[in-house]
């Protein structure tokens, strides 16, 4: 810790205390999704299983719900239900990260958690900050215990990147395969094509460029937050491309997030196939995956997106954005599926059967709904009067009437057949899983009433509705440490 980290930590703590009450009193506060204690949240970072606990770090600006200087906030849980907030973990306090501790990953080796992240620096001058004027360094810091981090070392400097790239190279994800460790970085090339760089290392200190990877035809100008993993015998590359053109049923958001199947050997000859979006809703971006002790691959996404033309009215209440629930990723026949982790089912409280074409009112709009046998050609879900999800002959549509979408309008997608639907609704967040995660729609939603009307049409099979309990959240930063800081 230096004088800068101490003061930034103090500013974070002051903001957390100053806005805590306001956020706590907000009826739009989420009950079973992770959201910022106060202020702004974006990408999930450093997702990991370490020393018997799940660690979820996140891009965090406690001092301003509209965003600003990025720190890493930190949540920890043994069971994905009972969470502790542990305070800012990585603070931008050195010359190579002074304009933001940007996204990165946590890699566990023996008893140490290694964090690799992007140190963002914008030099003063007449620069465009794409081709010049920006430092994007890979910084490495270690922790025994996963809470306090040591000295930062520069793992990759600007001159370690190959020719032909802009200054937009960031978001390192590190993993081990055989005897070597690998790091993947998202990049924007000088020819305005997105891609990734993959480095390898035997000691986590010296990194050597292994390869570059992109699509045969240009697919956007920048790929953020890449993640490469094997599942069910295939390799997948997840990333968040920017600059992809809108289509009628795909790529409707300003930026995308999805996965390619990697055909061939990712270390050698290979091709990227079939980009599929992770989520077709309005609010999803920059997800990251990790493997837990049981071998599950779990994904958490940012329930938000940069540069969208719709609003987030919770900002006026002292906070903005959230994370999706943890989703287990499975693969079948070269395709990925996402579904809420099983643990969430233990939050289910009162269970009721929901009849087709009969409206009910759900207190505070906090529920889990399973529609087991929707009608084959048509079904409709109405939530809170203004949100409607329709399936009709292969077409899915999520739309808002009125202003409770805060500028969100309509999002569409296609599937070949409809088998089942699950809806998680959490005051101002809705996640809709179709066919056990073959397609997902995630959106924020700001209905004025606290009780939500819920009605189904074309759902003549069994529909089960549960009221949901909240996850438990303890703030472990309030006492003790404060004295040390002051
Ligand atoms: C994605 C992203 C990352 C970057 C971070 C900064 O939303 O732009 O590429 O590291 O956010 O907060």
From TrEMBL:
Transmembrane segments: none annotated. GO terms for biological process: carbohydrate metabolic process. Its main location: cytoplasm. PROSITE patterns: GLYCOSYL_HYDROL_F32. GO terms for cellular component: cytoplasm. Keywords: Carbohydrate metabolism, Cytoplasm, Glycosidase, Hydrolase. It holds the Pfam family Glyco_hydro_32N. The keyword Cell membrane does not apply. Pathway: Glycan biosynthesis; sucrose metabolism. It catalyses: Hydrolysis of terminal non-reducing beta-D-fructofuranoside residues in beta-D-fructofuranosides. It is found in: Cytoplasm. CDD domains: GH32_ScrB-like. Residues 420-456 form the Glycosyl hydrolase family 32 C-terminal domain. It comes from the Bacteria. Belongs to the glycosyl hydrolase 32 family. NCBIfam families: scrB_fam (TIGR01322). Enables the bacterium to metabolize sucrose as a sole carbon source. This is Sucrose-6-phosphate hydrolase.
